[in-house]
Every structure is written in structure tokens, then in C-alpha cells.
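ok, trying the design again with the full structure, not the truncated one.
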């Protein structure tokens, strides 16, 4: 009987130890499995079309300014052009550089996996075109509360603020005219950007007697703008990009010296053949000269920061 009691006591003691041990392990396992959420300020994802040219310096400038304005916020970049992403990533891989360009969905997936639950997605597109529509359609991720910052030309108040800054670039009427060069949209559906272009053309004609709007892909077209510039009596034509980055389109299609892939001369060459003198605003950074896209104007960066602040308030 004593042996039986001793055996039962030993079994109970062992069971108790195992129970306690398993309980500790279970608690440890639960702690390990429990998701941990970031308590830091919401990250800000800056979304641009992208560039494979030296105009990348524009993004560097914007990145620097946004980081100064929002200390403590993680700043990430996403690029909507799959062509640009593939081209640059191949180049980075070839050079042995670890950097990679990512889509918006890739960046959002990274942030969700890192424990973030609130994110601001700020568009760096100028017009509310197809790229903006794609951002709204693709900017969803289970587990993330996402607030969207609007494009630069989201309100006519902001459009006029940008035009106020560009006014200093426009030649005096007796000297010549300015052509504002946008990207444009080849499609008539899905996005309101074409209507905005046409309304902007009307606004320009009401504000300036010597300022015309054209686009690389869309309306008002290249022909619309160049024909009006050729007919203007002044000899000087200044082409002012209204693209965030004065990249490939500006350097080649608009200001290039060599014909394009289809043998078409650039805007500048066509105007020079018509007897005009042509230039474009430039900016010097660390000894290098760049065509000046909207991203280099302080008012543009100020508008971007205001849109980020509004998106943060909306979270």
C-alpha cells in the first residue's frame, strides 16, 4: 500500500511538473505567435511614375525635403511604371547594387509584414490621370488602414499657385511666348486628366496672352502648341515642362537634337526650323545642369507636403 501511495505521489508530482512546464511553453509559444504592431508614426509612401535618366536627382530632392518635414516617419518609394522598374532593377543587378525599385503593392506588403497598420500613400503625379486611378485601385492591403494624398493638380487653387511660380519663367510678350509641356493621356476614359488639360488650356489663355499648352500624348497636342507658338510674333520660345521630372520626354522628345524613334523631330528642333530661338528652364545641382521639372520648384514640394498632412489627418 505504501509503495502504491509513493508511486501515485511520484506520478502526480511528475504530472504537475509537466503541466507547469507545458504551460510555460504554451505561454511562450503564444507570445511568439502574437503579432506585434508598430506604434511609431505612420510611414509615408511616395508614389511616382519613375525615371531611368539623370532626372532621378529630382526624386532625391523631394525625398530630402519630405524627410525634413516629417521627422520620425518612415519614408518609402514606389513606382507605377513596370517598364522603369524592370529596366532600373536589371541595371542595379548588373552593377551589383542591392537597391531595387518596387511597385506600390510590394511596398505595402513590406510595411504590413513589418507590423505597420496605418500608412499614407502620397501621389507625386501632376494630373489626376490613369496613374492616379491605378494607385486608388491598387492601394489596398488587408490589415492596413491607408490614406491617400492627392496629386499635385488636385485643386485649381494649387494649379494657380504653381502658375504663379512659373510666371517668372515666361518671356515678356514682346519677346516671345512660352509652351507648357505636359505628358498628357492617350485615352479618353478611366481618368479625368484630359478634361483637366483642356480646362488648364482655358485658364492659361485667360491669365497669359503668350502661353500655350501642349502634351506628348493627348490633347492639347504637340501640334496645337507648336502651331500657336510658330504664329506668335515674338522670336523667343521657352518650353516649360509641367511634368514632375524632366526626364526622357523632356530630354529627347521635347528638347532633343536627334529625331525620335519614328524620325519625328523634337519640339525644339521643329520650332528652330520655323525661325524661333528655343530654351527651357534649367537648374544647377552640385556642378551639373538639369532641365527643371515641377519637382524642383519649392511651391510643388510645399503642395506635396500639404497633401501629406491632410492624408495624415484623414487616418
Amino acid at each position: 500500500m505504501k509503495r502504491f501511495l509513493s508511486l501515485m505521489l511520484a506520478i502526480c508530482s511528475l504530472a504537475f511538473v509537466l503541466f507547469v512546464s507545458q504551460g510555460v511553453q504554451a505561454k511562450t509559444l503564444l507570445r511568439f505567435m502574437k503579432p506585434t504592431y508598430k506604434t511609431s508614426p505612420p510611414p509615408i509612401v511616395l508614389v511616382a511614375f519613375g525615371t531611368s535618366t539623370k532626372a532621378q536627382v529630382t526624386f532625391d530632392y523631394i525625398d530630402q525635403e519630405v524627410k525634413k518635414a516629417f521627422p520620425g516617419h518612415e519614408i518609402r518609394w514606389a513606382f507605377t511604371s513596370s517598364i522603369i522598374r524592370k529596366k532600373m532593377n536589371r541595371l542595379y543587378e548588373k552593377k551589383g547594387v542591392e537597391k531595387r525599385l518596387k511597385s506600390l503593392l510590394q511596398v505595402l506588403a513590406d510595411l504590413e509584414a513589418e507590423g505597420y497598420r496605418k500608412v499614407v500613400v502620397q501621389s507625386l503625379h501632376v494630373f489626376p490621370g490613369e496613374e492616379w486611378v491605378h494607385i486608388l485601385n491598387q492601394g489596398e492591403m488587408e490589415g492596413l488602414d491607408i490614406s491617400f494624398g492627392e496629386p499635385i493638380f488636385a485643386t485649381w487653387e494649387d494649379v494657380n499657385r504653381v502658375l504663379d511660380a512659373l510666371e517668372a519663367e515666361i518671356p515678356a510678350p514682346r519677346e516671345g511666348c512660352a509652351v507648357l509641356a505636359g505628358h498628357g493621356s492617350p485615352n479618353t476614359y478611366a481618368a479625368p486628366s484630359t478634361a483637366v488639360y483642356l480646362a488648364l488650356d482655358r485658364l492659361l489663355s485667360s491669365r497669359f496672352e503668350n502661353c500655350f499648352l501642349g502634351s506628348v500624348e493627348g490633347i492639347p497636342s504637340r501640334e496645337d502648341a507648336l502651331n500657336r507658338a510658330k504664329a506668335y510674333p515674338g522670336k523667343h520660345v521657352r518650353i516649360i515642362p509641367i511634368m514632375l521630372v524632366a526626364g526622357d520626354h523632356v530630354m529627347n522628345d521635347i528638347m532633343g537634337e536627334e529625331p525620335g524613334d519614328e524620325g519625328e523631330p523634337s519640339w525644339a528642333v521643329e520650332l528652330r526650323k520655323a525661325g524661333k530661338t528655343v530654351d527651357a528652364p534649367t537648374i544647377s545641382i552640385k556642378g551639373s545642369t538639369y532641365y527643371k521639372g515641377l519637382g524642383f520648384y519649392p511651391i510643388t514640394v510645399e503642395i506635396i507636403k500639404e497633401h501629406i498632412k491632410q492624408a495624415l489627418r484623414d487616418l
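Keeping the full-length input from now on. The radius of gyration is 28 Å.
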